[in-house]
Every structure is written in structure tokens, then in C-alpha cells.
Amino acid sequence: MTRSEYKKRVAWLIGYRVIEWEMADLEKDREKWAFREQRYKDQKRLEAQEKIRHVTEKIEHKVKASANKYIAIMDSIETLEDPMEQLVIKQKFINGKSLEEIAAETNYSYTQTHRYYERGIRNIEIKR
């Protein structure tokens, strides 16, 4: 596997976390506009309500994208034969844990956990 292929796999896997981060940012925006809506009057209140609707639509779109990405990644993780590779890849890319955290939780060394991670990236079959 080339370095470029490896990076593409990691980028594809991290896509789920990126969508989750984007949704969190949108939720903060919606809260901001909801607070402003309560403080504003007349035209500014209507503008805030429109912003809330717009942000809510974006969130709904991201929720669907997140669900689709989650399913695709979980299907790909299931292609891994080694259960430890599955665990490490799931914890890293679905649950957002660091390799250090995964190592501590599994009672493996960081080095061994990193090996599972590397092998998992190399062995995973990407299902788009």
C-alpha cells in the first residue's frame, strides 16, 4: 500500500468525526440564534428565526450524512478479521479516542495498539 492510499483511507475513516464536529458547531450556532431571537424584537427577531430554520436544515442534512457514514464505516470495520484491529479502528474513528486511551483501556502497550491500528488501516476494505 502506498502512502497516498494509506492517507486516503485515514481521511475517509475520519470523515465521520468531521461530520460530528460540524454538527456540534451548528448546534452552537442554533443556540446562539435562539438566544438572540428572545432578545430581539420585530425585524431582527424574524431574521433570527430565519437563521434558526436555516441552521436546523443544515443539522438535519448532517444527521443523515453522519448516519450514512457511520453505517459505511461500521460495514468496513466488519471486514477486518482481527477483533483487536476492529476494536482499535472503531474506538479511534467512531468514538474519537486516542491510541493512548485505547491502549490504557485494553491493557496493551501503546506500541502494540499502534500496530493494531496500522494493520487495521492496511487491511480494511473501504465500502462507500
Strand-helix topology:
Layout (H helix, E strand, L loop, with lengths): L2 H37 L2 H36 L5 H11 L5 H8 L3 H14 L5
Helix pairs in contact: 1-2, 3-5, 4-5
Notes on the structure:
The chain has 128 residues and is mainly α. It starts with a helix and ends in a 5-residue tail after the last helix. The chain has one domain (3-123). It has 5 helices and no strands. The model has no long low-confidence stretch (mean pLDDT 95). It has helices at 3-39, 42-77, 83-93, 99-106, 110-123.
Considering the chains and any ligands shown, give keywords for the structure.
83% helix; elongated; mainly alpha; 128 residues; 5 helices
Number of strands: 0
Number of helices: 5
Helical residues, percent: over 70%
Let me know the average pLDDT. Answer: 95
Characterize the overall form.
Answer: elongated
What is the total domain count? 1
What distance lies between the first and last C-alpha atoms, to the nearest angstrom? 19 Å
**What are the secondary-structure elements, in order, as H or E?**
HHHHH
Main structural class: mainly alpha
Instruction: Please summarize the sheet with the most strands.
Output: none
Rg estimate, integer Å: 20 Å
Beta-strand level of the residues, as a percent range?
under 5%
Q: Any low-confidence stretches, pLDDT <50, length ≥5?
A: none
TL;DR of this structure?
InterPro entries: RNA_pol_sigma_r3/r4-like. With 128 residues, the protein is mainly alpha-helical.
